[in-house]
Amino acid sequence: MTTNFENYKTFYFVAKYGNITAAAEALFSEQPNITRAIKNLEKDLGCVLFTRSNKGVSLTPEGEKLYRRVSIAYEQISAAEEELARYNGLDEGIIRIGVSETALHEVLLSALVKYHTLYPKIKFNLINLTNIQAISATKNQAVDFALIATPFDTDKTITSVPIKKFQDIVVCGERYKYLTNEKVSFKELTKHCIISLNKTTKTYEYYSKIFHKYGLSFSPDIEVSTSNQILPIAQNNLGIGFVPASFAEKELASGEVFRLETEEVIAPREVCLIKRSDFSLSVAAKAFEKILKN
Hints:
The chain is an alpha/beta fold. It folds into three domains: 5-87, Winged helix-like DNA-binding domain superfamily/Winged helix DNA-binding domain (Arc Repressor Mutant, subunit A, Orthogonal Bundle); 93-166 and 271-293, D-Maltodextrin-Binding Protein, domain 2 (3-Layer(aba) Sandwich); 168-267, D-Maltodextrin-Binding Protein, domain 2 (3-Layer(aba) Sandwich). Helices cover 44% and strands 22% of the residues. It is built from eleven helices and twelve strands. A five-stranded mixed β-sheet has the order 4-3-5-12-6, sandwiched between helices. A five-stranded mixed β-sheet has the order 9-8-10-7-11. A two-stranded antiparallel sheet has the order 1-2. Helix 5 (101-118) links the parallel strand 3 and strand 4 (122-128).
């Protein structure tokens, strides 16, 4: 390109209106600026683009050739800008969210219902990720943000926003119901079959540290890949499992599983939103973050 885009833009409006004054008004500019831009363009291209008369201006044969190309280009650029403005607004667009299983149940589902009611044209791409995967996806901008449960490790490139606290509980089936008569110690739990997420998860690491705090080894007999698998295994009397309380509400109420009270305190955990510290969320994503915070 031998001249700048603004000169072509000015040319487009002068040719469209056939009048320098009208073009200046459309561009919120002054007539001398319009005239100067056209002269610069003609100089750069080495040809005359307009003939002047008392009625206004008209395109020369060279100007007509240029206008055929420039009009298409300018209108395409304008359409792209309008499309992006809508996409970055709340009328259309997509939000990519990385989410752990716990975060999905604890906060995301209810937030989606509220958000969809307010902004029904926004689409979602939800990706089920472990904490480590979610942090990596956030850093690489594969997702706009992620929702994960503590514990997790981040660095200064990631901002963590606390969203909701939740409580883990210990559950069992009919086989271990007798343990509900009184509080049970972690030491007692190690004498029975324990169900847990596998060693690659931060939840496993979390409980390993808790048990180690009391001088105990955390050695699950059954390891699973998702928290949703723990409850039915416990329900079928194959062991005792640690799950977020919200996962077991219906089963506890119906008597399909039972809650064991422990002597040791299991501290609440937290669902957090993580996002890149150096990257601004889209308008749609910011609106979703606001709903999550509330």
